[in-house]
Amino acid sequence: MIPAAFKTLPDLVLGPLAGRPDADWYRAPAGKWNSAQIVEHLSISLEGSSRGFESRRDKPAMRRRPRTGLELLSGFVILRVRWFPPGRTSPPGARPPEHVDRSYAEAHFREGFERFLRVAPELLPTRSKDLFVKHPVLGDLTLPEWLEFHVVHCGHHAAQIRSRAAG
Fold first, then answer.
1. b/e string for 33-50 if b means 16 or more Cβ within 10 A?
2. Which of 4, 57, 100, 101 is the most buried (most CB within 10 A)?
3. Can you give the pLDDT at residue 115?
4. What distance in Å separates the CA atoms of residue 118 and residue 78, rounded to the nearest whole number?
5. What is the pLDDT of residues 116-129, one digit of tens each?
6. Residue 42: inside a domain, yes or no?
């Protein structure tokens, strides 16, 4: 079953930008991502992890690779405490380009979200403990763990979007 909190992600992330002019999508403090870049960053994460599960759908049962101490600590802090330590940078594969078209970012986010809504019911609950996709910081995660990560990750960045949209 897909968690209710996951189903709210489009409203959480895109809601503060609904009906806003382009300028609000591209406003950011110096050296920080603007809202279009943040939405694209979240899109990259959603798309990559959902495609990972799609590609493994028919694979035999997997075993989680042993996680390092840093992966275990990061998992606890992010998934249990629900906190992203300041000063962390996004893994290179999840960084948005310098300029992102707002329409593209929004469509890409919705596409990644919808992909999860299609693939998760096919894999839950039967494959909830024996199918893994590697997270660049947290190590191998199950589908339920990825869904939880996306809830926490989108919540973290939604606060930044609300701040930028407010001006």
1. bbbbbbbbbbbbbbbbbb
2. 100
3. 97
4. 25
5. 999 999 999 999 99
6. yes
30-54: pLDDT as tens digits: 999 999 999 999 999 999 999 999 9
- Three-class DSSP category at 166: helix
Q: Which sign, positive or negative, has the C-alpha torsion 152, 133, 50, 33?
A: positive
Q: What domain range is 130 assigned to?
A: 4-58+67-81+99-166
Backbone conformation region of residue 2, classed left if phi is above 0, alpha if psi is from -120 to 50, else beta: beta
Residues composing the chain: 167
Contacts with 43 (C-beta within 8 Å, 6 or more apart), sequence order: 105, 108, 109, 111, 112
Give the 3-state secondary structure of residue 140: strand
Which of 144, 129, 127, 135 lies closest to 5 in space, CA to CA? Answer: 144
